[in-house]
Amino acid sequence: DIFMTGCSFDEDGDPVAPCEYSQAQYDDFQWERVRNDAGTRSPPDLPHGSYLMVNSSQHAPGQRAHVVFQSLSENDTHCLQFSYFLYSRDGHSPGALGVYVRVNGGPLGSAVWNMSGSHGRQWHQAELAVSTFWPNEYQVLFEAVISTDRRGYMGLDDILLFSYPCAKAPHFSRLGDVEVNAGQNATFQCMAAGRASEAEQFLLQRQGGLMVPAASVKHISHRRFLATFQLPEVGRGEQDLYRCVSQAPRGAGVSNFAELIVKEPPTPIAPPQLLRAGSTYLIIQLNTNSIIGDGPIVRKEIEYRMSRGPWAEVHAVSMQTYKLWHLDPDTEYEISVLLTRPGEGGTGKPGPALVSRTKCAEPMKAPKGLAFSEIQSRQLTLQWEPLGYNVTRCHTYTVSLCYRYTVGSSHNQTFRECVKMERGTNRYTIKNLLPYRNIHVRLILANPEGRKEGKEVIFQTDEDVPGGISAESLTFTPLEDMIFLKWEEPLEPNGLITQYEISYQSIESSDPAVNVPGPRRTVSKLRNETYHVFSNLHPGTTYLFSVRARTGKGFGQTALTEITTNISAPSFDYGDMPSPLGESESTITVLLRPAQGRGAPISVYQVIVEEDRARRMKREPGGQDCFPVPLTFDAALARGAVHYFGAELPASSLLEATPFTVGDNQTYRGYWNPPLEPKKAYLIYFQATSHLKGETRLNCIRIARKAACKESKRPLEVSQHSEEMGLILGVCAGGLVVLIILLGIFNKYLIRGGPTFKSGFRHFPAVIDSKMEGKGLKKIKKYLID
């Protein structure tokens, strides 16, 4: 047969049957691996072949040797088969061979199969049907124990794992957990499939090793039977893992481990609570939230008796409170609670007893004449008529003063309290009240028999200064020179709000022109006005606002908040577009004037060059869109944009008006300022940017326009030492002459009545300075050719 894995001990490293086993290190000696072939000198009592062997004569009685087979974690039914050899020439027992099954590295427990005595000079086979599957794993341990006779040999061979059911050992179905109450009998039922011999012995094995024989074995069919095990009157000490084991000389079946769960019947920790007592009844709360033992609780009962009586009654209860009827007045009773969980014997012992007494006769009436003697904003002094015995009808009585009033800003919560008066008292001061609130007060006369409640009387406390306005209620919207502020009424108005007072003052500004701290200003608002717009403020300035409310008693606490106005865009000191300071075919010199920061200092300046195309909408000075996204000359070429950043200048470099040449072929903070194309017209913009606390404002203005060469009305400024510039002027002049001739021919052609057409092709010759080399020259050529 083909097996999945195993040990044949024939040859080390057998690729067909890899063998994984180990010798235990904690035992008394080791199994010996022998090879007894024909022609070898070996004892005649030993069989031929390779196997593990123990010579009993070489060891002391009782000594043990263990060999452990590899860990197994199978997904389906399987069978572990092994061969054993027990022989002594004179018929004495060489020892005992036992097999153990350890699950998930747990305790070894008791042997699931064992064999002793002398069984002839031959090999015998046995099987193990272990019903332990993945994700659990198990190990099989073989143990040899030396007998007192110390004669003969014990052998072990061919430990093989097959993927089909065992033929000599039954397979157990899954064993389920068993739950019982303490003191009851526990029953395990093990269903097995296979052939059971008459010598088959069924046992219930505890994880610790204890074995319990089966109470009965019932054959369901010729290949299916049911073994029943009884554990009498189990307690918490018997709670453990158990499994079913079938033992026979030809093999053993082992089930999975199942847990015996022993539950303690529940008992309340605390006695029931008395909710109300009358002359003939007691109302109690079971108070069963805390228990000793296990749940769930399926039934609750009350057991009560007279403290000095011989009888007791038990009532089933379905709610947390219960009323005991028909009791004797002014009599002491002991009341306990019984709890029951599922299962037989699930009723626990009675819990601690509540000892309570019924009441006297009911009072005649409630106290009368409740009135105030003094009213303040936070306390109220009350008085009422004295009480006599004709009203209380019992010497043991109490007078309680109960009051309530609403709390919270929306008055949706109620504070309640009852105060018991001292004996003979008919005056009381309620303290720590809220101002300007309706206080609902009533008097209650109670004795052990009952109670009488007086009519509720309403009193109102006096006004007080209001509480503070919540800082969280202050909401605002800052603009550049205005702030919209909104607030809410105080959580504790403590009266009628008559006025709001708002004060504000500048305390910090990034604009050096703003004086801080500034003058303090105050605004008053009516009680129904909870917002205000503050104007004429400075941009980028932090203001401290304080808001407080007022009642007839005065002003309350002040709520403070700091609000910073937004910064404004910088402003330029330019009138109309200024004239350039100088101009050549490829450059233009402009005057850069520092901008004025509004709420934040200037962070950086940029010079933007934009091609002035006829089909593009013109930008008007001061009213055009600005350039928030920096764009280098290279990026403009790649995107086909009509503008690029020719320079970026730090604010510290422009403290006064400074000339700047556009097209000087220099680099300013990473932005290249390439020469301008003479045949193209350009618009020059100057942009200033301010940053403050994550906020950015920018402004830009057109400061120059450079006309194309064909539109130029004045001679270009040419350096006397530049041969290249002369070449540019020559080409430009030649281009103008050719253009004039073409226009004349075209005009003459039109006069003669020639056909009219429109050309879709435009070409502007690019004039390149010979000093521009390498990569820069190529980029300029590409950008200048339209």
Description of the structure:
This protein is mainly beta. It has 7 domains: 5-162, Jelly Rolls; 171-263, Immunoglobulins (Immunoglobulin-like, Sandwich); 267-357, Immunoglobulins (Immunoglobulin-like, Sandwich); 371-460, Immunoglobulin-like (Sandwich); 471-564, Immunoglobulin-like (Sandwich), CATH 2.60.40.10; 568-711, Immunoglobulin-like (Sandwich); 723-784, no CATH class. It is 6% helix and 42% strand. It is built from 4 helices and 57 strands. A hairpin with a 4-residue loop joins strand 23 (273-277) and strand 24 (282-285). The longest helix is centred in the last third of the chain and has 29 residues, at 723-751. Mean pLDDT is 84; it is low at 615-623, 711-729 and 745-786.
List keywords for this structure.
single chain, 786 residues, mainly beta, Jelly Rolls, Immunoglobulin-like, 7 domains, 12-stranded mixed sheet, 5-stranded antiparallel sheet, 4 helices, 57 strands, flat, disordered C terminus, hydrolase, signal, transmembrane helix, protein tyrosine phosphatase activity, immunoglobulin domain
